[in-house]
Amino acid sequence: MQDLSLVIPAKYESESLPIFLDEIKDFKCKKIVILEKNDLQTINSIKSYGDIKIHYQKIKGYGAAIKEGISITDTKYFCIINADGSMNPIYLDKMLKKVEVEDIDFLFASRYEKPEGGSDDDNFITLFGNYFFTSIGNIFFKLNISDILFTYVMGKTSIFNELNLSSNDFTLCVEMPVKAKRKNFKLSTIPSFERNRIAGKKKVNAFWDGLLILIKMIKMFFLK
Question: How far is 173 from 177, CA to CA, in rounded Å?
Fold first, then answer.
């Protein structure tokens, strides 16, 4: 896994991030944690971890954290994996092998593919929202993926940097696959089970972020 960097966006995760870093301590890959400078509690919670690289993001937002993290990645592959523990690292080996063997540009972990797919964190609203936006992505952009809102994504670092993504918020989750598809990059999926968060609440506002995602997809459809 030496060709892999884990890009770990973290915001107010002082309880969960140390537990998650302990969980991945034996993974032989690079670990980049992206934080805001004023998130002192989270920063202080990981001061004893010497095997990680901390990047203080210049622009606020989940999408900005991901973009900045991957922009400083120097390995062939990256993987976005959240600090809250919901994305299980047991899939990393399988994901990396699939990316390498099948020469995949972007591999999307999916909570809705059998036999392993599932979620302890989903509720009716998020389940319906994901189905709705995934359907839009597959019908209007021909993505052929089953979980557009789950950002447990592995891919080629150089290819990601070619996308020139503009989203600094959660709408990055739809901009990324749409732009990748339009550039004829190879997309694939793999089943993944989403765990309960270690601590804290969702950072996503289902209704507000859903509206932003819908607006983003409409703009991408008409402004190619």
Answer: 7
CB 53 within 8 A of CB 30: yes
**Would strands 4-9 and 77-80 be described as parallel, antiparallel, or unpaired?**
parallel
CA distance 192 to 120: 11
- At position 75, the amino acid (one-letter code) is T
Q: Which residue has the higher pLDDT, 76 or 124?
A: 76
Query: Terminal CA-to-CA distance of the chain, rounded, Å?
Result: 36
> DSSP character for 105?
S
Which class would CATH give 4-222?
Answer: alpha beta
What are the residue ranges spanned by the domains of the chain? 4-222
pLDDT at 35: 97
**Percent of residues, the chain, with pLDDT higher than 70:** 98
Would you state the pLDDT for residue 70?
Answer: 98
